[in-house]
Amino acid sequence: MVKHKYIDWICIGAAVSAVLITLLLMYGERLGILKASANPGYETRLFDSSRVHAIDIQIEDWGAFIENAEREEYVACTVEIDGEEFHNIGLRAKGNNSLRLTEEYGLSRYSLKLEFDQFLDGGNYYGLDKFSLDASFQDNSYLKTYMVYDMMAFMGVPAPLCSYVWVTVNGEAWGLFLAVEEPEESFARRNFGNNYGKLYKPDYRSLNAENADVALQYIDDHPDSYPGIFENAKFQTSRADQERIIEALKTLSTGENLETAVNVDQVLRYFTVQVFVMNWDSYLGHTGHNYFLYEENGILGILPWDYNLAFGTYALGMTDPIKDPNILINYPINTPAEGEVMLNRPLYHNLMKHNEYFARYHAYFDELVSEYFETGRFETILWQTEKLIAPYVQKDPTAFCSFEDHRLAVDTLEQVCLLRAQSIREQLDGRIPATIRGQQENPEAKVDASGIQLTNLGDFEDLESAKGKQDAALNTIKSR
Question: Given the DSSP bridges, would you call strands 172-181 and 198-200 parallel, antiparallel or unpaired?
Fold first, then answer.
């Protein structure tokens, strides 16, 4: 029998503490206490973007890994992140056209994917299950993806975290990469809380197919008709999950009651940035992919992904790609794709049929241009980041370009964005037509962008000239 003159008070205190803890767990967010998922440890570690981080990939045979990279098969490795080792991590190459072209040109600088729970159940980096290392393929500035995600975050769109990392392999320099949070469980938990919805990465099966499901068109009520969506689910899905998606697509197809099926505000914010950066390797392009579809309680949202070919530099899969910078920089915000594409993209087209949503879309363009570009915020972030990464670009042994070409690309990216902002301001004010037809009928009503060469941002010629130094870097590691 426990004897203590204060035993009654101790028991009362324990009971009160238990009640308080329970109340905090239940109502903590209302009191301003964030869930652990809202402030994961990896956010302030690897994704502290104020510095360049260090990652060393320790692997037995890097040469064999590069030789078999196009298979996209995971191998086990040890990864040291800012001096801290993590063992038995899954590593593979990643990409679509970038992976194919890297292999075709005989290069070795692949974008990479690191998965902490590939071989270890529950494996993670301070709560992060997976991140990628973007190689800046056809992006001599190293800044396209970084800047677009910053624009998305500025406009309130859930976007992956990212930061620059100096990658070594078995202690030998491999290059400057951009670490990007992969949209999976950790991303969903961070952005949507522990009770997050379902996440998909719709992708086409063939460029020659209709890919109606990837375009988010309603086909019928059968899940088997939507393989481009459901075969690319990031989480396990049930028949009920699939039926919610299909029902939302059916509502979207009607163009009515859209807020019962679409997170309209988030989608409009996404398309504002998407159209600004002229990214046609996307939902609004010929391929219709490179986005994440988020569904929660039957409501659809669209999330950003893959911007190395943004800013008018995408041409793959296009029969007659536009190269004239005067056309690209002034590309109309009201019809950001040819009519045939627009009619088959209901998530954009059907929203824009509504005057209220159309006006809100224009208001978000005004917000982006006035608060991100006309205030100087863009130039500050661009050049602060370039100053941070410049010493690493200069010594990057596998870079796709020279340091001089990198600086030229950054200058070009700055000009492209500022002229694009000027054109959109004039489109909003009615001085430049905001439709393809209007610009064809008034070809002189444009911001003059003739002094820009978009190939300065990255071109196939860079791939041809990069092989020698990438081979040398690879041989240095293989000879250890």
Answer: unpaired
In this predicted structure, the answer to whether residue 136 has a pLDDT above a threshold of 60 is yes
- Rounded Cα gap, residues 109 and 399, in angstroms: 8
**Which of 419, 410, 355, 403 minimizes the C-alpha distance to 382?**
410
CB count in 10 Å sphere of residue 412: 21
Mean of the per-residue pLDDT values for the chain? 91
Percent helix, strand, coil in the chain, to 5, is 45, 15, 40
Distance of alpha carbon 183 from alpha carbon 139, whole angstroms: 22
**370-386 pLDDT, tens per residue?**
999 999 999 999 999 99
- Dist. CA 114–CA 457, nearest whole Å: 27
Residue 36's pLDDT is 38
The pTM (predicted TM-score) of the whole model is 0.90
Using CA atoms, how far apart are residues 329 and 183, in angstroms rounded to an integer? 30
pLDDT-above-90 percentage for the chain: 82
For the segment 167-178, the average pLDDT, to the nearest whole number, is: 98
Contact by Cβ (8 Å): 469, 397: yes
- Cβ distance 118 to 74 under 8 Å? yes
Task: Find the helix or strand (DSSP H, E) in which 134 lies.
Answer: strand 130-134
CA distances from 22 to 15, 25, 26, 29, 68 (A): 11, 5, 6, 13, 52
Identify the burial level of 428 via C-beta atoms within 10 angstroms of its C-beta, where 0-12 means exposed, 13-18 middle and 19 or more buried: middle
CA-CA-CA-CA torsion sign (117, 109, 48, 29): negative
- The DSSP bridge pattern shows strands 162-169 and 53-58 to be parallel
